[in-house]
Amino acid sequence: MAQIIDGKAVAAKVRETVRVETEALKEKGITPGLAVVIVGDDPASRTYVNNKKKACAQAGIYSEEYALPASTTQAELMELVEKLNAKKDINGILVQSPLPEGLDETAVVEAIAPEKDVDAFHPSNVGRIMIGNFHFLPCTPAGVIELLKSVGVEISGKNCVVIGRSNIVGKPMAMLLLHENGTVTICHSKTRNLKEICRQADILIAAVGRRRFVTADMVKPGAAVIDVGINRDENGKLCGDVDFAEVEKIASCITPVPGGVGPMTIAMLLRNTITAAKLQNGVET
Ligand code: NDP
Fold first, then answer.
1. pLDDT of residue 273
2. pTM (two decimals)
3. Ligand 1: residues within 6 Å at CB?
4. Positions of the chain with pLDDT under 50
5. What is the pLDDT of residues 44-56, one digit of tens each?
6. 99: nearest Cα among 87, 113, 111
7. Catalytic site positions
8. Quick one: which atom of ligand 1 is closest to the CA of 231?
9. Which of 111, 118, 115 lies closest to 142 in space, CA to CA?
């Protein structure tokens, strides 16, 4: 049976280091601040935003929420981003996705000042990650790397397969594994022989968004399996992309859903907020 990677416990450790660092920054007169913008009333987004605010409070990070109606115009949203870019007590800006239809998410992300882009979605930060000269790492992929390291999985030289090529998970995930010297393959909906490719993986990352997508016959015995997916099963319960019950029997370690990658995403967001506060105040990171 696989070792279950306890994302909650690893995230709690990261959050504790953030809390201690925040205290130290406050002694220097710096209070890290995060602005969270939510547009519309998507229930999942509301839950994420509430969790992020709670996590900030626990870590001693100042946070502000801007809850805008779904009828908000692009111009109004851009104006808010500009205001937050200029606000001295705000070091990080996060605009919760998805935005309601009709709003241009790309334009909003590009309007965020790169030094306040704690999601690391701005093209400038994406480019920095590409060349390995970055301030922030995107929260979910960075959290996955922490999880692998937490159970001693060596990435260097290993075959790493990422299923999914989105800009927020799949692509940056592949890049971070490459920075860790993994040999990386990215799969997507047009990939042929997906099963065979996945079976080569020492480290398999699923970021597809389809429940029970990764079945046991796709997994090499002894592989490390990280499940990024967040889906609902037929009973409405949260589940990932991996057929956990079957894959657990053959993997060496595996993340559950919930309690795996999810908690890490928030922990890494807090870490990025601290980094942003340091950068903006000339404190070494
Ligand atoms: P996207 O829908 O943007 O991307 C899904 C990817 O899966 C695409 O690249 C798509 O390929 C690929 N895919 C779809 N069908 C197949 C198939 N049959 N075979 C191979 N590849 C396929 O999703 P995200 O990357 O945004 O998110 C992925 C999952 O992770 C979701 O469940 C999301 O909720 C979750 N998530 C979890 C987070 C966390 O904190 N735990 C944070 C962010 C996301 P193609 O590009 O060809 O269409």
1. 98
2. 0.97
3. 140, 163-166, 168-170, 187-191, 194, 207-209, 228-231, 261-262, 265
4. none
5. 999 999 999 999 9
6. 111
7. 52, 96, 119
8. 32
9. 118
